[in-house]
């Protein structure tokens, strides 16, 4: 069950979109909602302050101004939270930008689901923070395309299925949504051995049926397109309200490098994605 949701806030107009989606989910499952406001302090304020020959007063003044701006944004968010229709709280992290991803992932570990704007868009500045929540929190992440309006219910769900741990994690994290949906379509793309993949999909469908989900199966070929585009085309055909998928990637020098299909799906989808690693 979903009983604790966390939503990322940054003091921009996109907060309204994120809060609307998170509040809608929290209402549906009678969950508590925590808003996590991240205020990025300037990195150079720390670098200059410890360099010989530099007077620390300028960096300190810059940081103080950023903190004051954060006070204004936090006060506004706290006031807005009084109108949210579920139990809630607003938390705040002030830290250099490079430290925020790990701090955010640590906060997200005790929430059932982390809600954020999908990264890799034209105006996205929080890519590393969302990646940290996805790969380091141990929970699923609900990604909202920028500007995407919330719906009164999540009725139609596409599950992008592969016989992998990541796909299984995503299905497990999305069970509350699958159980409440009117239609859940399990889609496999370019299965390597059709008969084996069909059996795996049938077993998954039976498992989800026992949870009360209404399942149908579909196997598709990419043709001249990509896996991501094939999945998005199918999501549009079925008027999906949500896409469920596993996140594939690896760590290099403490940074996560996402697989091509995962990154393309996140960057191009106009449908919310529940994704897990």
What are its keywords?
single chain; 277 residues; alpha/beta; Rossmann fold; 2 domains; 10-stranded mixed β-sheet; two-stranded antiparallel ribbon; 12 strands; 43% helix; globular
Number of helices: 10
Determine the structural class based on helices, strands and strand pairing: alpha/beta
Going by CATH, the homologous superfamily of the largest domain would be HUPs
**Highest-level CATH class of the largest domain:** Alpha Beta
Task: Identify the CATH architecture of the largest domain.
Answer: 3-Layer(aba) Sandwich
Q: Span between N and C termini?
A: 19 Å
Major β-sheet, in short?
10 strands, mixed
Low-confidence stretches: none
Q: How would you characterize this protein structure?
A:
This protein is an alpha/beta fold and 277 residues long. It is 43% helix and 25% strand. It is built from ten helices and twelve strands. The protein has helices at residues 14-29, 43-49, 57-81, 100-108, 127-136, 165-173, 175-180, 194-210, 227-237, 260-268; strands at residues 4-9, 32-41, 88-96, 113-117, 140-144, 156-160, 183-189, 215-220, 242-246, 249-252, 255-258, 273-276. It has a ten-stranded mixed sheet, sandwiched between helices. Strands 10-11 form a two-stranded antiparallel ribbon. Strand 1 (4-9), helix 1 (14-29) and strand 2 form a beta-alpha-beta unit. Helix 2 runs antiparallel to helix 3 and helix 9 packs parallel to helix 10 (260-268). The longest helix is centred in the first third of the chain and has 25 residues, at 57-81. It is globular and about 65 Å long. The mean pLDDT is 91.
């Amino acid at each position: 069950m979903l009983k604790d949701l966390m939503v990322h806030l940054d003091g921009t107009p996109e907060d309204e979109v994120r809060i609307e989606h998170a509040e809608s989910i929290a209402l549906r499952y009678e969950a508590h909602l925590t808003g996590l406001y991240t205020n990025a302090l300037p990195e150079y304020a720390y670098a200059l302050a410890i360099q010989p020959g530099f007077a620390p007063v300028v960096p300190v003044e810059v940081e103080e101004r950023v903190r004051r701006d954060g006070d204004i944004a936090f006060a506004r968010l706290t006031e807005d939270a009084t109108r949210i229709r579920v139990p809630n709280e607003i938390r705040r992290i002030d830290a250099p930008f490079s430290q925020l991803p790990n701090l955010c992932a640590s906060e997200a570990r005790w929430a059932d689901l982390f809600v954020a704007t999908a990264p890799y868009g034209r105006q996205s500045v929080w890519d590393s923070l969302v990646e940290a929540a996805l790969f380091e929190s141990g929970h699923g992440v609900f990604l909202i395309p920028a500007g995407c309006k919330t719906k009164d219910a999540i009725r139609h769900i596409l599950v992008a299925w592969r016989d992998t741990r990541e796909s299984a994690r995503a299905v497990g994290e999305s069970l509350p949504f699958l159980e409440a949906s009117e239609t859940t379509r399990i889609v496999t793309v370019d299965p390597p051995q059709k008969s084996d993949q069909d059996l795996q999909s049938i077993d998954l469908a039976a498992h989800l049926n026992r949870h009360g989900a209404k399942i149908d199966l579909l196997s598709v070929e990419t043709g001249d397109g990509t896996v991501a585009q094939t999945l998005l085309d199918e999501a549009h055909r079925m008027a999906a309200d949500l896409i469920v998928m596993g996140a594939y990637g690896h760590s290099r020098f403490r940074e996560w490098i996402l697989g091509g299909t995962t990154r393309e799906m996140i960057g191009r989808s106009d449908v919310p994605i529940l994704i897990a690693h």
